[in-house]
Write a structure and sequence with these properties.
It is built from ten helices and 21 strands. Strands 7, 8, 9, 11, 15, 16, 20 and 21 form an eight-stranded mixed sheet that branches. A seven-stranded mixed sheet has the order 1-2-3-4-5-13-12, sandwiched between helices. It has a two-stranded antiparallel sheet with strand order 6-10. A hairpin with a 4-residue loop joins strand 8 and strand 9. It is α+β, with helices and mostly antiparallel strands. 28% of the residues lie in helices and 27% in strands. The radius of gyration is 21 Å and the shape is globular. The chain has one domain (4-464): tRNA-splicing ligase RtcB (Alpha-Beta Complex), CATH 3.90.1860. It is an enzyme of class 6 (ligase). Its cofactor is Mn(2+). Its EC number is 6.5.1.8. InterPro entries: RtcB, RtcB-like_sf. Keywords: GTP-binding, Ligase, Manganese, Metal-binding, Nucleotide-binding.
Length: 467
């Protein structure tokens, strides 16, 4: 049975997959017609499976959605008392931190100065797996790492107002070293970016010429090993074959569920602090090259499950677990969970990277964010897998490299040429051609009244892991 063609179109950018089989709820997808046509049949089977877990009370797809591991990337699953590991994935609390600098477009128009900045960042931040530590990268004692796992950004003196969550509580008596494969990764990788789609990028606002730095990374090997451990343990508990472990789930009140929750939260704390530590290195590089300051604007995760206040259509509230797999929290003004923060009256920022060619955006949620369980996309969404990209684009390597070096954009009234990189060749599996167009994705959110674009930025320098 084709689930893709069982989907019903509700409005120009809103599709619904009715309850089929074991689905507990219908699934709502926010897509333009073009984005819908591009979706994979297997992704619809994944959201069908996602909506069929015990305790599910909401299932959503955002406009950057695509096939994932067990659960679609760009998927949001809401439950009453169930924790679904695949709705978080392996990179627990992967997310973004954004710094606003006191620079303007004309200050970064020089390729030479941007190249110097890239080199200075690389002296302070490990790119890739983090095993090759640059000379100016900080090291951390085990006691500090334990504090980070327990208290996140608070452990390194970061204020709560610039964090989606400063830290997530874990049990006071928690033994982080119990999962040794994970714990062994924590100290050497704290302060490193990682590979794949993780990056550090200097961006310029197309309208006002303000200069930003966006950092995208997660919980590194610590989070990956925790996720892997609990996929196997969850499958064993539920009687699911090891080769189908992505279908496992946990009850929040059962011992294994509580244990996963604790380790998941410690991985989130690692990721939150990791982004701020990397931001410190970026700030040093800005001062060194440009004699400029960069202040953290906001930091937010997009692979996480958290217990949140759900605002129901009748205005009543209840608590539930919101799983965001490649999706960003988007609390609009007045949301109960923003009480006590500086964002209560305007909603908090949503930091959305696109691609190393297409740039990024900062959004603010609007009232219709409640239609998506207060969630927006986490990026633009892949249209090509990594192996496929390397195979199909290999003959275009020179063209893509030249495009990155020579592209010209007028940003804040200043013409800037080229996007400086830290590699001699553009990684084909991360180039702009393997992602959807960010503006097309964001247009869906704006048309549905889910969020508005506050800043639209384009890249002028980019660092990626090379191992």
């Amino acid at each position: 049975m084709s689930l893709k063609y069982a989907v019903q179109k509700v409005s120009d950018n809103h599709y619904v997959l009715p309850k089929v089989g074991d689905m507990k709820v219908e699934a709502h997808a926010f897509l333009s017609e073009k984005l819908y046509e591009r979706t994979d049949e297997l992704m619809w089977h994944q959201i069908h499976q996602s909506a069929s877990y015990p305790g599910v009370i909401g299932a959503y797809l955002l406009p950057d959605c695509h096939l994932g591991y067990g659960i679609p990337v760009g998927g949001v699953i809401v439950t009453e008392d169930t924790i679904i590991q695949a709705s978080v994935g392996f990179d627990i609390s992967c997310g973004v931190i954004c710094l606003k600098t006191d620079l303007k477009a004309e200050d970064v128009s020089s390729w030479k100065k941007r190249d110097s900045w890239v080199r200075e960042v690389a002296k302070r931040v490990a790119l890739g797996v983090g095993s090759g530590r640059p000379k100016l990268m900080p090291t951390f004692k085990i006691a500090t790492v334990d504090d980070v796992l327990r208290y996140g950004a608070k452990a390194i003196g970061v204020k709560a107002d610039v964090c989606e969550r400063q830290f997530i509580p874990v049990p006071e008596d928690m033994d982080f070293s119990k999962i040794e494969k994970a714990y062994s990764k924590a100290s050497p990788q704290l302060g490193s970016v990682g590979g794949g789609n993780h990056f550090i990028e200097m961006q310029v606002d197309v309208n006002d010429g303000s200069v930003w730095v966006m950092i995208h990374c997660g919980s590194r090997g610590y989070g990956w090993q925790i996720a892997n451990h609990f996929f196997f343990e969850g499958a064993l508990l539920r009687g699911i074959p090891r080769n189908a472990r992505e279908r496992s789930y946990l009850r929040a009140d059962e011992p294994l569920g509580k244990e996963y929750w604790a380790y998941h939260n410690s991985a989130a704390n690692f990721a939150i602090a990791n982004r701020h530590i990397i931001a410190n290195g970026v700030q040093d590089a800005l001062q060194k090259v440009f004699k400029a300051k960069g202040e953290v604007f906001y930091e937010i995760s997009h692979n996480l499950v958290q217990k949140e206040t759900l605002v129901l259509p009748d205005g009543s509230t209840k608590r539930g677990f919101v799983h965001r797999k490649g999706a960003t929290r988007a609390f609009p003004a007045g949301h109960p969970d923003l009480i006590g923060t500086k964002w209560l009256n305007i909603g908090h920022p949503c930091l959305i990277p696109g691609s190393m060619l297409d740039g990024a955006a900062i959004l603010f949620p609007k009232e219709n964010a409640y239609k998506t369980a207060c969630s927006v996309n986490h990026g633009s969404g892949r249209i090509m897998g990594r192996k496929e990209a390397k195979r199909k684009l290999d003959h275009k390597q020179q063209f893509i490299d030249n495009q990155m070096r020579t592209i010209e954009r007028k940003l804040g009234g200043t013409m800037i040429r080229g996007i400086v990189g830290n590699t001699s060749k553009t990684p084909l599996d991360e180039c702009g051609h393997v992602y959807k167009k960010l503006d097309e994705v964001l247009a869906v959110l704006e048309s549905e009244g889910i969020a508005e674009i506050k800043h639209r930025m384009y890249p002028v320098a980019n660092l990626k892991g090379t191992d």
